[in-house]
Write a structure and sequence with these properties.
Rossmann fold, two-stranded parallel ribbon, 6 strands, 48% helix, alpha/beta, binds acetoacetyl-coenzyme A
């Protein structure tokens, strides 16, 4: 959606070479491969993006994984992987771009949270903690960045048609669907539309906010 609106877009992925190749072929979007849970990889990656496309003015932190299991069965690795990817990535990606944004007096950072970071979810102590952390991170960085023309906001999607949601057990998914007032899953476009709105130059008065797109499942 950002590309359709005329931005020069770079996308980062870690796993899924085939999907990445197809996205590039279909859209022409520049694709980069690194792990956003790795700070040094992010530093190097951002430098590579900037040398090809110029300074990063808009950053969308949307990398996320699940390792769903109740806490009494959760391994340390399942905890650490989710926190490192979903929350650690915000530090790892914002840190290399924030100084440039401050110097240029402009920036748009949009962090993807989750309804489950707002309300909790059985089997997701790791994921809910990471996504609640995204909201706190967003507010703190919004405060630090406001006087530099940089906005920092969070979009908190509910259950949408994605591979991540498709992986949820059928019986669990049926019970979740019953709690969504609009009676259906969301679409990725429902989320992208908010991101594109927040990325606009004219959205400069909106910062530190969390926008829900969850079909009424949770009204924060
Ligand atoms: N609330 C209350 N009780 C629940 C429950 C819930 N949501 N889910 C399970 N239970 C109960 C079961 O009914 C069962 O009770 P009995 O023992 O009385 O039969 C008991 O807890 C079973 O507990 P277990 O600890 O053995 O759990 P389980 O193996 O049945 O299920 C799980 C564990 C597979 C992790 C499952 O809870 C689950 O899939 N949770 C996560 C689902 C989910 O929403 N994931 C989101 C992925 S998508 C995403 O995250 C994107 C986004 O941002 C929205």
């Amino acid at each position: 959606m950002l590309q359709k609106e005329g931005y020069h877009v770079a996308a980062v992925y870690h796993a899924g070479d085939e999907s990445a190749r197809m996205l590039h072929e279909q859209s022409g979007i520049r694709i980069f491969k690194w792990n956003v849970a790795d700070f040094d990889a992010c530093k190097r990656g951002v430098a590579a993006v900037e040398s090809e496309l110029g300074p990063v003015d808009i950053l969308v932190n949307n990398a996320g994984i699940t390792r769903d299991t109740p806490l009494h069965r959760m391994t340390s690795e399942q905890w650490t992987d989710v926190l490192a990817t979903n929350l650690g990535s915000l530090f790892n990606m914002c840190r290399p771009v924030i100084e440039g944004m401050r110097a240029r007096k402009f920036g748009r950072i949009v962090n993807i949270g989750s309804v489950n970071g707002q309300r909790g979810q059985y089997g997701q102590t790791n994921y809910a903690a990471s996504k609640a952390g995204v909201i706190g991170f967003t507010k703190a960085l919004a405060l630090e960045s406001a006087r530099f023309g940089i906005t920092v906001n969070c979009v908190a999607p509910g259950y949408c048609h994605t591979d991540m949601v498709a992986a949820v057990r059928d019986d669990v998914m049926a019970s979740i669907l019953a709690t969504i007032p609009v009676g259906r899953l969301g679409e990725p476009e429902d989320v992208a539309r908010i991101v594109a709105f927040l990325a606009q130059d004219s959205a400069g008065f909106i910062t530190g906010a969390t926008f829900s797109a969850n079909g009424g499942q949770y009204m924060a």
